[in-house]
Amino acid sequence: MKSVSQNSKISERMPNNKILIRKAQYEDIENIAELDAYVFYENAWSTESFTRELDLHFSQLFVAEIDNKFAGFVLAWFIADEVQLLRIAVLPIFQRYKVGTLLVQHVINHAKKQNKIELEVADTNTSAIKFYTSLGFYSVGFRKNYYRFDNAILMEKIIHHEN
């Protein structure tokens, strides 16, 4: 993967390209870990952590591709009647083109037995809070000093299954 902060002309023609969401493979882990480090800095997960996620039966790791190029990822745990959204990140050149929205929607579409999806977000991350709110998430709690330097807002969204 090229440097995640590198500019590209791809974003100018992005709306015409199809976004593919698929299950992550071991070959994707390097790109996932590099993007995670770029987005989450000190709170980044290791390559080994993401590799272990592929082997957990309740864990689902998906990647987004545009023109066969890695664009982002989402990691969620499907446990009992809820989904826990653990990680989501999109390369900067692909942001604002609904890649994150499609990743979250893909997770929700895989929630066959789950009735809600939950997440934690840093209270200082206003763009992420706005993003999740636009998708129908709402605040249900607060965790003081959850992250190294930030508090967390707990958010959830009820999943409505069509019968």
Protein architecture, described:
With 163 residues, this protein is an alpha+beta fold. The protein has five helices and seven strands, in the order H-E-H-H-E-E-E-H-E-H-E-E. The radius of gyration is 15 Å and the shape is globular. About 7% of the residues have low confidence.
Would you kindly provide a brief summary of this structure?
With 163 residues, the chain is an alpha+beta fold.
Helix content bin: 25-40%
Give the CA-based shape.
globular
Query: What is the CA-atom radius of gyration, in angstroms?
Result: 15 Å
CATH class: Alpha Beta
| First-to-last CA distance | 42 Å
Q: Indicate the proportion of strand residues.
A: 25-35%
List the SSEs and their pairings:
Layout: H1 10-13, E1 19-23, H2 29-40, H3 47-53, E2 59-66, E3 69-79, E4 82-90, H4 99-109, E5 116-122, H5 126-134, E6 138-143, E7 152-158
Parallel strand pairs: 4-5
Antiparallel strand pairs: 1-2, 2-3, 3-4, 5-7, 6-7
Entry keywords:
7-stranded mixed β-sheet, 163 residues, alpha+beta, 5 helices, Aminopeptidase
